[in-house]
Amino acid sequence: MMRLPPVAPRPPAVAQILRAARPVLIFHPAQKTWPILSFPVFPSSPENGSIGFPLGAVLDACYAVAFNRRGRLVEKDSLALVADESFALESLPDNLLVVGDYLFYTVGENGQQEEDYEICSRFINWVPPAVIPSRWQGGELDEEQSNIDLQVSKSEVSVTVKDLDSYKCIITGVGESLNSSHVVPRGERPWWCRHEDIISSYSPGRRAGIADLNSIYNRISLRVDLEELLDLGYFLLVPYGGKIVAVVVNVTAQTLAYSCHLREVNFPDRIPRPYLFIRFIWSVLRKNAAALEIYAKARRKLKQPTTASIQEKTPDEEDESMEWEASTRSGDDHEGTGSSNRSGSKERWSDSGSSGGQARSGAAGRLTESYLKILEAQDAALTARGTLTMDDERAGRYPGFSAIERLKMAYWQAHPEISAVGGLDTAESPPEIPGNE
Predict the structure, then answer these.
(1) pLDDT tens digit string along 75-84?
(2) How distant, in Å, are the alpha carbons of 1, 2, 9, 90, 196 from that of 5?
(3) Which pTM value belongs to this model?
């Protein structure tokens, strides 16, 4: 009788990871309580790697958030100059910005430092500049390449892109499970159409425009999982050291960081580099949307005229006001509903100046501390788990998020006139993180 050899157990896998350090945080000089931009930092290599984030990428993100205004970066505590507007975008493209807290000031035409500048909190409101920072310029094509799209039908674009990329992922160099991925996201077609004239100017000497969004000039070959991670904001593609590199910006993506962080990407020349700049800004604004929106709303609230007869509201504020009034009316008829709770919460904050409001404010403080303790427990569970779920991504939860929430709450309590801005209801418990027991 023939005996089969026993099946050997799989050897334990040894995870090869990089662990993130404290992030680079960028603050608006008019509000220094919580950051408007956050850049997680991984070592540049597994052993004795440099700790920092590409300075040029940070400056370009600040430039876009300030509605394409140049500025200077200074250390938050010492106010020591890190990068001046006169050379920041040109002469220091490849330095690593060390972990720390920084302020970004815009600079006026006369060279004066400005701290009370508007910020762009949503990609849909961002206008691509006529002149892209030099670091993002490139992607020169020869005549044969610039006419190749004339020979490619819509049904053949995906196959042609993979063929032009030698059937290899531009990040891993491996030719398996490939997708033809968009550089400028295809979901931003309305934005693209609105700014088509500017975008067309990025590709002089060849046919460009709306056709580019789904053409070979806006498509790259990526492994399927990396395409999804790029869209989720786990990593960015940025110029660094004269190359295009992957920069991992999700603190839980430790395995991805080990294999890809600050590694050169074989980015094809057929893609105009300004398209990559657009993708970079899209990713940064999405990743920091919550902090940017809170600051933008707080700023609008503080700048509202106090006289009701001359008060003008933005469309967003009109929507918020109508929603508040509707929830208040519905609260009279539907006691205990979510609308009633929201309305009660806003009344509690708005009445904090009266004697009755002071009592309410004290109760709100207790609810606030209870709320933050729940967040801290969830934060600890998420950190121990070591991975983020899709629910975590959608809710903006990540290791360390509770500390940011505590800073926000402290600011709201210190500034009751804007405490309701941002939509946080301390009377409601936050959603539970899966796996938190």
Answers:
(1) 999 999 998 7
(2) 13, 10, 12, 65, 66
(3) 0.69
